[in-house]
Each structure stands twice: as structure tokens, then as C-alpha cells.
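dumping these here so i dont lose them again. two proteins, back to back, each one seq then C-alpha cells. dont judge the mess
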Amino acid sequence: MQFEPATVQSASLYFNEGPDESEYHAAIAPKAEGFVVTYAYYRHGSNLTVGSKTPDPLPLDAATKVFDKLIAAQRAKGYRTCFPQHA
């Protein structure tokens, strides 16, 4: 049995401008013989929305391009990198 990591690459972004506060998470994950790009976002006061930008698995280089484009689009909207908080 071969172990596959839960994600190959991931990013967590945060947006806070005035009353608007939201989080956006994206990841490249192995699936079948390829990789998918998944996302989840949450706006304060609403439900979590999850989905996939790649309905079918892609080669890693293609999935990475989709992931990079997705993160760049969110950064252009004003999202910034989340840093983990340590206790």
C-alpha cells in the first residue's frame, strides 16, 4: 500500500475590509491518477462554500497552473496570506 499526502500544495487567504471579513482556502490534492484543485470559502455570517476548480483529475503541472491562477485572482481581490496562530 502506498501513502499519498492529503495535499501537495495549499494556501489560506484572508480578507478584511470594513465590515467584510472572509477566508479562502485552496489546495492541490491527489485523486485517482492525477490531481484536483479544491477550494473552500467563508464569509462572516454565511455558510461555508466548497467546490473544485478541476472536476476531473489533471497532471500535476496543469493542476499547479490552475491553483496559481486561482490564488492570483483572489489576491487581486484583496485577499492576503493567513499565518497560523501559535498558542
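---- next one ----
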Amino acid sequence: MAESLGLSRASVREALRALEVIGLIESIQGAGNYIRTNFDNSLIEPLSLMFMLQESSVKEMYDLRETLELQCVKLSARYIEENELGLLTAILNRMYLAKTEEESLELDIEFHYLIAKTSRNMLLINVLEVLSQLMDEFIRKSRMQILHEGNTRENLLEIHENLLRELKCREEAKASQAMKEHFDLIRKAYGYEE
């Protein structure tokens, strides 16, 4: 390969290592290098590492999450199917019945990721999945901060209920506004008011 490309073997070896690190190829000792057929998790480690090394701030995570979720909810309002609305309704009902804050939190995360999946935008979905560990921790911190600031669990449930209602109406602008209200609560809790 090095000869056909007119490069040194060391350069080709380094390029192959880089492709393996980002998950595009798989190197099998003694067998060669192969293009991967499953790219689902190919960006998880490099992006997670980037966020950790850059010590991304809570504000940066907030901005990223808001940007991604506002776009997801617009697309979701356009593409969501009746059975998915039923799933969101079931999650919301379980949120009302949750006995512990941990259970409420897990359902909150599930609610938001289902909205992302119903956007039908695989790139948005994959980016959110790549960032899931960081985003899940951000959601945990956001929820705790919101509750700490004197907002009640009922306020959070009402916001999620409004969001679901607007998705059922299938109006992108109203669904986006409902999601924005959710983020306004987070912004206020963290003191990021514009």
C-alpha cells in the first residue's frame, strides 16, 4: 500500500492507526486491516475524550444540549408516529408515579432520548448517543439544580406535559417553544439568563 501511494510505511501505518482510533477500520494482527461495517460507536470514545480533555463547562453542555434538542423536537413534531406519542405518554405517566428522584430522573432521560429518536435524523441521534454519558450527567445536574432553586417536581412534570401536548399537535413552532421553556427553566436555575 505504501508503495502504491508513494508514502513511507511509517506514514501509512500511522494513518491506519488514526483510522482505527476513530473506528473506521479494524486491525486484526496477522490478518490485515478491514473497513468496519458497524459505525454505531465509532465516535464515542474520541468525542468523549475531547470533552473531558477540554473540560467542557456546564454552560457549554447546556448550549449544546439546547441546540440539539430544539432541532430534535422540531423534527419530531413533523415525523412522530401515534405509537411513539403513546410511548411518550406512558413515560410521562410513569414520571407522575415515580417513587424516587432517581426513577424520575431515568424517565426524564428516556423521555428526551425518545424525542430525539422520533426526529428521524440519524446524525442528530448518533451525536446525542455519542454524548449520552456527558448529557445524562448534565441532565442529572440540571434537574437537581432546578429542584434546588425552589422549583417543584410538579413544575418539571408540567413542562414535560406541555411538551408532549405540543408534539401531539404536530406544530413545530409550538413544540420548539415548549422545549425552549424547558431550557429557560434550566437557564434560570444556573443563572444563565440572557
